Amino acid sequence: MKQTWEQVDEYITDLLCPNDPILDDVLTANRKADLPEIDVTANQGKLLQLLVQMKGAKRVLEIGTLGGYSTIWMARGLPADGKIITLELDSHHADVAKANIAHAGLEHMIEVRTGDALGQLAMMAEEEMEPFDLIFIDADKPNNPHYLNWALQFSRPGTVIIGDNVIREGEIINKHSTDPRIQGVRKFNEMITGNPKISATAIQTVGSKGYDGFMIGIVKG
After folding, report:
1. CATH of the domain at 192
2. Which among 9, 70, 73 is positioned nearest to 39, based on CA atoms?
3. What is the count of structural domains for the chain?
């Protein structure tokens, strides 16, 4: 089945996500810098871009930058005065992302903050950062519950919150898993279920990156 998923991904990408030399350069730069190959796929990047556009977002928060591939996809969906703040723990990853963002000509709308995301989020609270229109959570999964709490703090009614990798090859249904990533995502999902401030669903995805999924929610008034 995985071969079929990969072929379908290639078909969708060729048909709906035309070749983009800059984004190809970003993935090449990430590989050369030995970054883990865990970026979203092109069709998933396009989905994030469309969600930014459908929301009419002007302010985006991304938790987990890696090499900036998803960041660039989302930034291209923003209006000219839009802004993304993206948080990356690893300084090497952040340096690669900054170079990729500069190559894409998007430094004026993307701010990369380097360091522990929970610490960065606390600093943002001290700065009295304005709420965001869309928040994309794609970092270390054991901390997903904490990231959700911060996402809600930096939200307002109508803010869209997206969580990546919430299915984990179907392991998410294993309540006895000893994998802290699985337990982090399970708690994340359960927190959403029990929170009247957010309405959400999750969708399963298959493709060249395997079997996983997204959580998509909206903050209520």
Report:
1. 3.40.50.150
2. 70
3. 1
Q: Is the pLDDT of residue 99 over 90?
A: yes
What token pair was written down for 217? 């929610």
Q: Which residue has the tokens 């800059």?
A: 22
Kindly tell me the burial class for residue 130, based on how many C-beta atoms sit within 10 Å of its own C-beta (0-12, 13-18, 19 or more).
exposed
pTM: 0.96
Q: Assess contact for 31 and 37: CB atoms under 8 A.
A: yes
Task: Identify the bridge partners of residue 207 per DSSP, sorted by sequence position.
Answer: 210
pLDDT in tens, 101-147: 999 999 999 999 999 999 999 999 999 999 999 999 999 999 999 99
Contact 92, 33 (CB under 8 A): yes
Residues 6+ apart with CB under 8 A from 34: none
Domain limits for position 90: 2-219
Which of the 8 DSSP states describes residue 197?
Answer: T
First to last CA, the chain: 42
| Strands 198-207 vs 210-219: parallel, antiparallel or unpaired | antiparallel
DSSP state of 78: S
Evaluated on CA atoms 88, 90, 91, 95, the torsion sign reads negative
Please say whether the beta carbons of 42 and 17 come within 8 A.
yes
